[in-house]
Amino acid sequence: MIVKKLKVISLFSGGMGLDLGLKETNRYELLACVEKVPAYCDTIRLNREAGHLPANLKIYEGDISNIDPYEVLAATGLKPGELDVLVGGPPCQSFSTAGNRGTVQDPRGTLLWQFLKFVEVMQPKFFIMENVRGLISAALRHRPIAERPPKGPELSFEEMPGSVMRLFSQDLQKLEGSAYHLDIFEVNSVNYGAPQIRERVLFIGNRFGAQVAFPDPTHGPSSNDMAEDDLFSKPVQLKRWKTLGDVISDLDEPTPEMMDFSPRKKGFLSLVPEGSNWRSLPEEVQKESMGKAWHAKGGRSGWWRRLTMELPCPTLVTMPNHSSTSLCHPVHTRALSVREYARIQEFPDYWQFSGKTADKYAQIGNAVPVRLGAVAGQVIADCFDLLDANDWKPLETAPEAFRIVYIQSHVRTRRWFKDGKTIVWDKETDDADYGKSTTKRLIKSLA
To answer: Given a cut of 80, is residue 418 above it in pLDDT?
Structure first.
């Protein structure tokens, strides 16, 4: 039986994590990429020349707002409606809850609508758009908390949490020539076998009115965890989360490429045991090294953090050597290397990265975990095959409103401190104390 290869165009391609995930399914043929950053485009060219990407892959370098979607589509030999899948992850800093949260007043926010423009022109059968969890609750216009009700007037539509996605969904429904159904999935890569706790949102659209089914987690924090059962099936035992040690312990790097900690930072980190953070330092050293942050009430778990081989890696950031978000090697007092970063994101070892060391960290840290791309790719391929076998008629009627499907994406931060005592990860006790997830799956409408 010949399996159809789905034709793909990639936007905001970056380090190609999503594209490599699709490649792993052996169901996709990548035709063209659009990427703005020169170093990232060099990465794509380097791997194309090495034979890791199609030799005829077309690469469009530049600001997406200056690139004509008609030209890109025509260069692939396709007409509107003939593209199988459009994929991309618009830069997400303006919606992240990890820093100073902006909105679409930030020019980066408009990249969502650039993606939508390509959907309108190309009319793909499916699209995947990946982003940060904060996008779901982002507002079109930010109002400082101190000025919100009851201290200030009622919020306007633009100021309401979730107004970005409501406007995006409204505009998606208004596209001429194609009516898209959209399913939004909140997922965590660690629950599907990645060695990293990384919460992401996947927007999967199709123009056939079909509901897309995303699988339940296959992995959990311990081997005793069971998948959610229902009235018609037996509970399935989950595999244990993959750990940092699973992917980097066998890596031999005589001269690892990295942005390392300063000698001052190394002095503090050298006092921290594997699997602990600033709480293992003497109190006077904590105060000296952390300054005003020592008095903060939350968000301090990343300070002087030394990882452990026995647990999944925390979410990778674009720079591993910051004091407050440190990603220190479990054994060596140094930052995680570029190749270790790539292993954690599950890039294949043959994959090469171009640019300065900072460019390499950024394109790896911002990438979609390869495994998550593979899971999403299989989801779309399965739905494509079902529709194809059913003469492109959906098996069930899509709901009137778009769905947001939460799939156990929030992993509670492991405990670092309890009952007045610092908690250092102890592999002998085999208890990371991440806490149990009470909500396995929750579906709500994007009204």
So the answer is: no
- Burial (CB count <10 Å: 0-12, 13-18, 19+), residue 395: exposed
What's at 4, amino acid-wise?
K
Given pLDDT bands bounded at 50, 70 and 90, which one contains residue 231? very low
- The number of beta carbons lying within 10 Å of the beta carbon of residue 237 is 12
Spatial CA neighbour of 12 closest among 33, 42, 39: 33
Q: What is the 3-state secondary structure (H, E, C) of 316-369?
A: CCCCCCCCCCCCECCCCCCECCHHHHHHHCCCCCCCCCCCCHHHHHHHHHCCCC
Q: Which two tokens stand for residue 19?
A: 């594209």
DSSP string over 79-114: -TT---EEEE----GGG-TTSS---TTSGGGGHHHH
| pLDDT (tens digit per residue) in 334-390 | 999 999 999 999 999 999 999 999 999 999 999 999 999 999 999 999 999 999 999
Q: Say whether 40 sits in a helix, a strand or coil.
A: helix
What ranges in 123-282 are assigned the alpha helix state H?
134-137, 163-173, 244-248, 263-269
CA 227, distance to chain mean position in Å, is 23
Mean pLDDT (whole number) for 78-97: 84
The tokens for 279 are 């709480």
**Whole-number Å distance between alpha carbons of 285 and 296:** 16
- The DSSP call for residue 392 is T
Dist. CA 383–CA 211, nearest whole Å? 9
pLDDT at 107: 41
Give me the catalytic one of 41, 92, 328, 383.
Answer: 92
What domains are there in the chain, each with its CATH number?
A: 6-224+227-232+365-406 (3.40.50.150), 244-362+414-422 (3.90.120)
Which residue in the block uniquely carries the two structure tokens 């009319």? 123
Active site residue 92: yes
